[in-house]
Amino acid sequence: MGLIARAIEEAGIPTISLSSAYDLTALVKPPRSFFVNYPLGHTAGRPFDRENQTAILRNALGCAGEITEPGAIVELQLIWDDPSWQAGV
Predict the structure, then answer these.
(1) Is 43 exposed, middle or buried (0-12, 13-18, 19+ CB in 10 A)?
(2) Tens digit of pLDDT for each residue in 22-65?
(3) Is the entire prediction scored with pTM above 0.90?
(4) What range does the domain containing 52 cover?
(5) Around Cβ 2, how many Cβ atoms within 10 Å?
(6) Which residues, including other chains, have CB under 8 Å from residue 14's CB and lie 6 or more apart?
(7) In degrees, to the nearest 5, what angle opens at C-alpha 19 toward C-alphas 17 and 23?
(8) Is residue 86 part of a domain?
(9) CA pair distance 41, 25, nearest whole angstrom
(10) 58-67 burial, b for 16+ CB within 10 Å, e for fewer?
(11) Does residue 84 form part of some domain?
(12) Quick one: how far is CA 60 from the chain centroid?
């Protein structure tokens, strides 16, 4: 998605990317990216969890203007409700 975001930005349309794979995002360097430390496949939170999904979007959109360096990754300070998922990663 980072490569697509760069192409869209070249056309003059601002983008933001959400990622739960920090290393891959750092390699691709999308213009504006936000890291969500959630399990892969759950970057926007659990299905139907509107409260958490809204918090993710509000955090990302609220911080988008603070990114001044292309390729910078901002880590959103959100915590998955059961951190034991990280033990298997």
Answers:
(1) middle
(2) 999 999 888 889 999 998 888 988 889 999 999 999 988 988 88
(3) no
(4) 2-77
(5) 19
(6) 31, 32, 64
(7) 120
(8) no
(9) 15
(10) ebbeeeeeeb
(11) no
(12) 7
